[in-house]
Amino acid sequence: MSDQHGPEGHHRTRSHVTLQAVRSRVQPGSFPLLLVALLLLYVLNGVAVDLPANGIVGRVAVACAGLYVLSASRTTLWLGVLVVAFWIAFEARLWTPDTWVGRVLQDTIATGFLLWVLVVVLREVFRPRTSEVDAVVGALCGFLLILMVFMRVHGLIEALRPGSYRTDGPPFSERSDAMLVDSFQYFSTITLTTVGFGDIVPVTPAARLVTGLEAMVGQLYLAVVIATLVGRVAARRA
After folding, report:
1. pTM, whole model, 2 decimals?
2. What is the CA 149 to chain-centroid distance, rounded?
3. How far apart are CA 32 and CA 69, in angstroms?
4. How many CA atoms within 13 Å lie on the side-chain side of 78?
5. DSSP assignments along 39-88, one per residue
6. Which of 18, 112, 132, 232 is the one with CA 20 to 30 A from 49?
7. pLDDT tens across 114-166, in order?
8. In terms of Cα–Cα distance, which of 212, 214, 164 is closest to 188?
9. What band does 228 get if pLDDT is binned at 50, 70 and 90?
């Protein structure tokens, strides 16, 4: 009993209270960090064809920011660390199975992790007690996460069935990982924003289905998020 009331026990109690206070704010508070990491990843993916190491730097930044978002729970934090370790190991070629298997595993793990972070972010965005600023920043993070998720899904479809997407130049099955990421990030951007230049064309049923779903998600996401944020502001000012 004396240990619990001594200096060491008091220190542990204060540390526990501090940790709980940080965890209570870690999710909305981490949104600006996540937004910066996602924007950095988007830019670095675009130049990774010339400098492949840039893509790894961006993915590590997003992985760390994503882990911060997931750190409100010790269980989710350690599970996230495990998932990120496998993801970065494949991305950095620390473990190199067959090229086809490596691409499938990279896209599968990245898709799962980004979806997980997206769910946590959107849960906070639509939670009434989240402030307007945190909700807006979280909504921007959600949009970029959706873009990255579909980018990886397009890559996964192409890896599972080469030739699912047609474009000028060499087929995607003959391109490097950096070129694939750059191309599908561009394709995901013009699809999610419903611009659709037509220079990359989905030709298989799975590719067309995912492309159509991404276009619908892009429209619905903006409509739902904007309506929610406007309604929240109006309710608090009433």
Report:
1. 0.83
2. 6
3. 11
4. 2
5. HHHHHHHHHTTT-HHHHHHHHHHHHHHHHHHHTTSHHHHHHHHHHHHHHH
6. 112
7. 999 999 999 888 888 888 888 889 999 999 999 999 999 999 999 999 999 99
8. 214
9. confident
